[in-house]
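quick one: LD2JLWAY bound model?
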Amino acid sequence: MVHPRTALSVNLNKVALVRNTRHLGIPSVTRAATLCLQAGAAGITVHPRPDERHIRAHDVHDLAAVLKAWPGREYNIEGNPFHNLMDFVRAVRPHQATFVPDSEGQFTSDHGWRFPDDAERLRPLIAECQALGVRVSLFMDAEAEQMAAAKAVGADRVELYTEPYAAAFGTPGQTEQLRRFAQASQAALDAGLAVNAGHDLNRDNLTPFLRTVPGVSEVSIGHALIADALELGYEATVVAYQRCIADAFA
Ligand SMILES: CC(=O)[C@@H](O)[C@H](O)COP(=O)(O)O
Ligand SMILES: NCC(=O)COP(=O)(O)O
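yep, here:
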């Protein structure tokens, strides 16, 4: 079942990471995508980093072919538009491009864009994506005062970087983080942006997040979901995450 309120996009970076440790082609990234889509995932996300530590260029094209067989499901490609992302956008025209301000060797994504600093250099690349029919989401820290500027630069959506919430989950800081994210999401919605969210979301912290943070259109989840799939399998794991989403709106 694809839940109508908040779409689940499965990030397959970590399947590729394991695959790359041998020259055997397993675990298959395309098979993971197919099994997750068959289980009801609304889409697939990849972050083809320049060093190809996990998702490689051929994966991006292989997955585009898989998604073509799934009308209504979305392909989201993340990356830094000043590095290699735009070449992938031009070549495969995904449904969504998520601009992430990562440096080339960065351990993982850990911050969003800053306005007004980044505005003028982002504007033409956002416009180019949209001219190609690709929706643009900007990876942003949960700062309400930054949302109007994200809209002004032309973005369709923001993706709230959820690691600070995930790190506070289960501690006294959880309430304050949820308030911060709810405020940032409402500010984005008020500015005319749609809201995505991602990074370190899992089966424990997802439902409370969606119950409290208004109007989340899509969550992209990879690390914890793939870890769960090692134990439960892709189908049961996607169903479990869809249940977490459904529980938030029950
Ligand atoms: C942008 C973001 O928060 C994640 O989607 C990112 O893809 C994580 O990258 P790694 O899987 O390389 O840690
Ligand atoms: N944009 C977040 C994403 O795609 C996956 O992040 P994570 O669940 O691997 O932390």
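Residues 7-248 form a domain with the TIM Barrel fold (CATH 3.20.20.70).
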